From TrEMBL:
Signal peptide: none
Positions of the UniProt region annotated as Disordered: 86-108
Domain of life according to the entry: Bacteria
One Pfam family it belongs to: Amino_oxidase
Compositionally biased spans, kind Basic and acidic residues: 87-99
Protein name from the UniProt record: Amine oxidase domain-containing protein
Domain Amine oxidase intervals: 15-464
Species assigned in the record: Bifidobacterium bifidum ATCC 29521 = JCM 1255 = DSM 20456
Length: 537
């Protein structure tokens, strides 16, 4: 009988749990001995669902959509698509395609809902479509003079291209200087804490994909064509998506249970503090529980979704440990420098449960609530006069996230900050008071008297950033790949601002390499680097 190959997976987020399931599914536990180490007690990483007093918060908002059919099928296998109307479908008389034989959301939780994305931009106390659309509403909100200025600015950008040496030039080339200054400059600085002129154009190339004024126009014309295919729409314009009934964390909690049932070992409260190596291979990891107890775990293969900075420091820490093998070499100083210089942006979300919103639903999209609430999933606050970056209306993601969905509105205010700064260090009461004051100034609510409950959640290393030593990331990748049995996957594992489906794809590629014996890891790192990769069906 062939001996099992042992695998340690660091992290119980989308990438880590995808890797675990890829190993143990269909009897794979007979071949692979899989252990997942998760630092917290929860699963899903920043894709987890936070539960508070009967209401649920989605950290950052997670649309389940991918142009990679493997991922769509993967999700549908975990949580099948609804085969009957959800609560809000019934209340609003909403019709959309149902999955034949699919579960009824009113009778089971194990179901994926079909959702329609509505997002708008809040700027200068006016609402614009998100992404920017060439609609009558946009022209009305901007006014004739501003529309003309923006139009001529865009025309100029078509004929006078700037070198794409920064994110600022990337945006100006696609939207013109005026629209850039209105909708991108302030928001980008709010998000990253850096002016777009100081940020690499790589970020725009990865997140915005092919979106531009021309992209908006092409998408508008495709909507008029009966031959439009979903795979033809630019990533940032996707309008329909799937969503777990109880939030994204529900899917990853389900995957974790499946992994355990299929033979994987999942250990929580397990923070990896040392990674021991010898002769160019990883030998073992040392994890520490909250009570300070340390445990060493040996394995044949290692998959890491922990932040690259922490990974490199854990390898270096092991080389200085008296218990480590003498053959364990320290991390080269230049690699440590690159890793420690990789920047991150941290995240705070404040949930406010309110009686009602001042904002009126002026769209033709029916919504729940008495009076009806706005239909937005997200409201992007591009206005630099506010610190909040986005508002999430959880009622519109899934009615099952809100305990009393007909008579309350559950709003998430997303703030971008740095761990340890003044906003991060606010108390719950201070952060809640600040959030209430911003919603009041925005005329979203009347004031504190409208707020019934609140919850503040802080998320470290939510956004890997593309400046400082990121320009030398290729050198660090070469070093990490020199360990033949170490695979870096996921958003923080690759220090790449991936969507959830891209993070999953990196894990699928890594597992395929291990199973086939493929030594090159280029396919693992190349997910989401090229605009066409997994973006066209």
């Amino acid at each position: 009988m062939t001996q099992k190959q042992s695998v340690v997976i660091i992290g119980g987020g989308p990438a880590g749990l995808t890797a675990a399931w890829e190993f143990v599914n269909n009897g794979g536990s007979d071949t692979y001995d899989v252990t997942v180490l998760e630092e917290t007690q929860e699963f899903g990483g920043i894709s987890r669902t936070v539960k508070h007093n009967g209401n649920r918060m989605d950290i950052g908002g997670h649309r389940f959509f991918s142009k990679d059919d493997r991922i769509m099928d993967w999700w549908k296998d975990v949580l099948p698509l609804q085969g009957a109307p959800s609560y809000d479908d019934k209340k609003l008389g909403r019709e959309h395609d149902m999955e034949p034989g699919g579960p009824d959301p009113e009778t089971t939780d194990q179901v994926m809902l079909k959702r329609h994305r509505v997002s708008r931009i809040y700027w200068n106390r006016r609402f614009f479509d998100y992404p920017i659309s060439l609609s009558v509403n946009t022209f009305k909100a901007m006014g004739f003079k501003l529309t003309m200025v923006a139009g001529f600015s865009y025309l100029k950008s078509m004929f006078h291209k700037l070198p794409e040496t920064s994110l600022e030039n990337f945006y100006i080339n696609r939207f013109g200087r005026k629209l850039y200054s209105m909708f991108f400059e302030g928001y980008t600085e709010k998000l990253w804490g850096r002016h777009p002129s100081q940020i690499s154009a790589d970020w725009g190339a990865q997140r915005v994909k092919g979106l531009s004024i021309l992209g908006v126009l092409k998408n508008a014309f495709r909507k008029l064509s009966p031959k439009k295919r979903k795979g033809e729409v630019e990533t940032s314009l996707i309008e329909e998506f799937w969503y777990p009934k109880l939030g994204p964390g529900q899917l990853w909690e389900t995957v974790e249970r499946r992994c355990v049932d299929a033979g994987a070992t999942v250990i929580t409260d397990a923070k990896v503090v040392e990674i021991r190596q010898a002769q160019g291979r990883i030998e073992s990891v040392v994890y520490e529980s909250s009570d300070g107890k340390r445990t060493e775990l040996h394995a044949d293969q290692f998959i890491s979704s922990m932040p690259v900075k922490d990974l490199v420091n854990a390898i270096d820490a092991a080389s200085h440990d008296d218990d480590a093998e003498a053959s364990s070499a320290p991390v080269p100083q230049d690699m440590t420098h690159i890793a420690n210089g990789l920047p991150y942006r941290d995240f705070v979300t404040v949930g406010l449960l309110v009686k009602h919103m001042r904002l009126k639903n002026t769209t033709d999209i029916p919504t729940l609530g008495n009076p009806p609430i706005v239909p937005d999933c997200w409201i992007y606050v591009q206005d630099p006069g506010y610190k909040v970056g986005r508002l999430q209306i959880f009622n519109n993601w899934s009615p099952y996230l809100v305990k009393d969905v007909d008579d309350t509105v559950w709003i998430g205010l997303e703030y971008f900050c740095n761990e340890g700064d003044d906003f991060w260090n606010m108390t719950d009461a201070e952060a809640t008071k600040f959030a209430i004051s911003e919603l009041t100034r925005m005329h979203v609510i009347n004031g504190p008297q409208d707020v019934l409950d609140s919850h503040r959640e802080r998320v470290k290393k939510a956004y890997p950033a593309y400046f400082d030593t990121y320009a030398q990331m290729s050198e660090l990748i070469e070093y990490l790949d020199s360990f033949g049995n170490l695979y870096c996957v996921g958003r923080n594992g690759q220090h790449r601002y991936n969507n959830m489906d891209h993070s999953m794809a990196t894990a699928i590629e890594a597992v395929a390499n291990i199973k086939s014996g493929k030594t090159s890891k280029q396919n693992v790192w190349s997910v989401n680097t090229d605009k066409s990769y997994h973006e066209q069906k």
